[in-house]
């Protein structure tokens, strides 16, 4: 058994059963080992950003890491943007990067680069394999690191000779630390805030927002009069009928400041303190009111559910019965233009039970969340790190993780153009993904941002840099190019018809929604 | 004048007249300044790898740097693979990366990352702007660094407040060092090699291979009996009728070792020592014969032309008249299958004078070079750093640099799928580019590499990882999606007809060549 086979066997034995790959020469022994090892599904991606974004989507839905397989420094580079998003989502990923044989690196061959340097900014754990006999142990350590709460990007660099020289067999995964318990001081501080008489906000992120944590937080809110708010971007929220509805911190800076303005106590539960997505001249970086005191009940690394349970007990909220979304589903809009709110209502009405929504809607989708509180139960995954181009890959990975659930990718057009190649992987793997492209033919978000940063009265060159209408991207053609059926719809009735059709069948389908 | 405007004015005054951009919020003031400053052509790319690859192609043809405009760490990340190629091609690029306002970085907003860490591996020069009053001087220093021979990637990180706060006007570009003169010892060592009676190879790269240097090297070879060989990958060779024909070091390891085997003296002129593109078990990293002595006449940083002139004088070769390609052009193949050699002959026959060939052919194109020595005069640009996905972007940049020359992009299909978005930029800018897609529906190069690295008898999973036929990419549909007309050809006669048509018109056109 060579090093590559010992690594693949260690991955499978350690529960890493999917590899999103775009391999090259230095990874050929890993690829060859796939035929000698049962249990590893290797999913080919045409571009590394597709592989890393899929690994992120997979981890969010499977709650266990997939691996990637990337080709040297440039392959890693192409995957970095979605690793950045994965890092912000706290997704566990065993990120495997091929490298020249150890003895070959000194010769500065054309593909040689500083892989560790490139990997460091996105990696919580980083190691270069030194020998074939040690590579399985390196892989086992990488799995443990990827699984370390709340989930981490663990990068293992795999020199070619550590793959082809003799390996040492399977190595078990070392113990993974459990989430730390929030300390009693944090509970006491939260109790003090909740009983202070001051307007108080429970700000939820990570596991606290997903479903169970949110439900306990809602009991606390009901008992104490506190309000609930999710972070602006969340890795995953399980929501819809039967769950506690929650709004998110708005993206636009003025709305975000306005949402936080009433509160004088802010309790963070799995959330980080609210900061401006960007800096804007004359506006603060910290969004909470200057007189607001911030308390951390539990960090993303800590056990937020357990902390919420202790807090609920402390304030006597265990027996509360918070409002849950009880349906009925929203009605389909009967007529009117094909615009954002109508689309949101269609989503709320037609989304099937168990749907996984991968949301990279940006401007178009700002109200979708509010319009789908009463939809059938579903998971909602967001762009977590602000690096656009995650939607199609993330939907791909979520569909691999959950083959029996319908994936609906709500996708801004400009962002889709970063990583549209992942449509091909959806076709190849027969994944059940409906992609809805919001075709406004612009970087619409930036039109607002020009004014927000004080660049008023933009001229034609500036406007041109934000426009995608010359030429207009023909999305059904693009989808067909990648082997995916697609349709363009220009009316609300057509959208409803075609979306229903797409939901009624299995396999990838793309709808370009003209806005 | 704010900092952004002072920077744009400094760029234009410093001769940087094109910006390949994919901007975001933090770059909006740079974008807004474009309307207040004449002379900067801003070319929108849908993906940052398209921007950096275009800047590489531009620099290779214009011999002066363009700038990029990228959005924070993730935007830079997406551009890194083609910056790696640019670094290997020694292309000068003013690589501008937006960043959060200086005071905002501490808050770890979602898009915050270690931009310097990400940029360092590809950047010969790297600076983060600290103030709006200093940003123009930073830009001027970046231009000087990008222009420093032989050409460098200079990364300037532009915090948003250095763009929007008041700037200080135009700053002139500091003096750029000239190429250093090769020392006399190097000339003497080369003379000794050439007069040693041992078989000697002049190995040419960088400027030495382009045209004038190659012509002087050919005189030296003719006088001394030495042979000429270009590097395996070259940033640019100006070749065809009227120039000295030269072959390149082959890519496959055994052929490369075989090509160097006869030589006992190797004189490097703008070339680096030949090393294996990858490591292969049981094969050496250094490709020259173990008994071969290597002499450096001039490094890529030094003045190779001047060194060759001194060497020619020293060996009495000035008056030699080396063989030049005198035509006639190759005949069109009359009939036969649509395969590699026939395609090479069609290229040789039909390529128009002044064509710029952007070659990312990989396996399909291994004989194209040999079949086009007698073609009309043209420039030939190669994948320099081994990071696939440069072809379509590089062709885009070359077409921006040389609007009156026909660009012909010889493009492997697997590699094209990394950065096909650049077709859209070709349509938007009405660039005169013919893209020829070698549609073998596989990572064909890796099929050979499996065996080369000793992974024999690959199973179906391994073969599957190298196959792109399920689904087959429909290239004309993909091109149409991006606003570019395309056709698929399946016979030699059709290829000739459609290629002629594409050459006879202006504007982008794509031909999927079925192999």
Descriptive labels:
homodimer; 515 residues; alpha/beta; Rossmann fold; 3 domains; 7-stranded mixed β-sheet; 6-stranded parallel β-sheet; 17 strands; 37% helix; TPP_enzyme_TPP-bd (chains A, B)
How would you characterize this protein structure?
Two copies of one chain form a homodimer. With 515 residues, chain A is of the alpha/beta class. Chain A has three domains: 3-164, Rossmann fold (3-Layer(aba) Sandwich); 184-314, TPP-binding domain (Rossmann fold, 3-Layer(aba) Sandwich), CATH 3.40.50.1220; 340-514, 3-Layer(aba) Sandwich (Rossmann fold), CATH 3.40.50. In chain A, 37% of the residues lie in helices and 17% in strands. Chain A is built from 20 helices and 17 strands. Chain A has helices spanning 3-13, 28-33, 48-62, 72-89, 115-119, 132-147, 160-164, 184-194, 206-210, 212-224, 253-260, 304-314, 340-350, 391-401, 413-416, 422-428, 444-452, 460-465, 475-481, 492-504, and strands spanning 18-21, 41-44, 66-70, 93-99, 125-128, 153-159, 200-204, 227-230, 237-239, 265-269, 293-298, 355-360, 378-382, 407-412, 433-439, 485-489, 509-514. In chain A, the strands form three sheets. The first copy, chain A, has a seven-stranded mixed sheet, with helices on both faces. In chain A, helix 3 (48-62) packs parallel to helix 4 (72-89) and helix 3 crosses helix 14 (391-401). The termini of chain A are far apart. The mean pLDDT of chain A is 97. At the A-B interface, helix 2, helix 4, helix 7, helix 16 and helix 17 of A face helix 2, helix 4, helix 7, helix 16 and helix 17 of B. Chains A, B: Residues 1-106 form the Thiamine pyrophosphate enzyme N-terminal TPP-binding domain. Chains A, B: Keywords: Thiamine pyrophosphate.
């Amino acid at each position: 058994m060579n090093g590559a086979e010992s690594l693949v066997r260690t991955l499978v034995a350690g529960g890493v059963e999917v590899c999103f790959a775009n391999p090259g020469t230095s990874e050929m022994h890993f690829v060859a080992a796939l035929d000698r090892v049962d249990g590893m599904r290797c999913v080919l991606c045409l571009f590394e950003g597709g592989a890393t974004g899929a690994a992120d989507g997979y981890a969010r839905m499977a709650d266990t890491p997939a691996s990637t397989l990337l080709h040297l420094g440039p392959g890693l580079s192409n995957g970095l943007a979605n690793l950045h998003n994965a890092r912000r989502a706290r997704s566990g990923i065993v990120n495997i990067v091929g490298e020249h044989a150890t003895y070959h690196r000194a010769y500065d061959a054309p593909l040689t680069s500083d892989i560790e340097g490139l990997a460091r900014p996105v990696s919580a754990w980083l190691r270069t394999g030194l020998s074939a006999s040690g590579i399985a142990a390196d892989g086992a350590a990488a799995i443990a690191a990827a699984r370390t709460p709340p989930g981490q990007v663990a990068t293992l660099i795999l020199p070619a000779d550590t793959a082809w020289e003799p390996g040492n067999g399977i190595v078990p995964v070392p113990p993974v630390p459990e989430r730390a318990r929030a300390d009693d001081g944090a509970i006491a501080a939260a109790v003090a805030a909740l009983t202070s008489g001051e307007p108080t906000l429970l700000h939820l992120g990570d596991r606290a927002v997903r479903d169970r944590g949110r439900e306990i937080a809602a009991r606390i809110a009901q008992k104490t009069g506190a309000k609930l708010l999710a972070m602006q971007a969340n890795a995953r929220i399980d929501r819809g009928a039967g769950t506690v509805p929650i709004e998110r911190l708005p993206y636009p800076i003025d709305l975000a400041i306005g949402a936080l303005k009433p509160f004088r106590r802010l309790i963070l539960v799995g959330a980080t303190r609210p900061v401006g997505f960007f800096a804007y001249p004359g506006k603060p970086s910290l969004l909470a009111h200057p007189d607001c005191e911030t308390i951390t009940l539990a960090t993303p690394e800590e056990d937020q559910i357990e902390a919420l349970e202790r807090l609920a007990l402390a304030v006597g909220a265990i027996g509360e019965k918070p409002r849950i979304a009880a349906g009925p589903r929203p009605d389909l809009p009967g007529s009117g233009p094909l615009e954002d709110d109508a689309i949101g209502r269609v989503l709320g009405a037609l989304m099937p039970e168990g749907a996984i929504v991968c949301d990279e809607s940006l401007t178009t989708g700002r109200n979708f969340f509010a319009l789908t509180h009463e939809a059938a139960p579903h998971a909602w995954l967001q762009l977590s790190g602000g690096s656009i181009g995650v939607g199609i890959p993330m939907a791909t990975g979520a569909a691999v993780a959950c083959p029996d659930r319908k994936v609906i990718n709500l996708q801004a057009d400009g962002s889709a153009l970063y990583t549209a190649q992942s449509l091909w992987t959806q076709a190849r793997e027969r994944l059940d993904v409906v992609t809805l492209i919001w075709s406004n033919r612009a970087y619409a978000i930036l039109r607002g941002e020009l004014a927000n940063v004080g660049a008023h009265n933009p001229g034609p060159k500036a406007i041109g840099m934000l426009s995608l209408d010359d030429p207009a991207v023909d999305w059904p053609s693009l989808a067909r190019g990648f082997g995916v059926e697609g349709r363009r719809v220009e009316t609300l009735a057509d959208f409803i018809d075609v979306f229903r059709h797409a939901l009624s069948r299995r396999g990838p389908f793309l709808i370009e929604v003209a806005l």
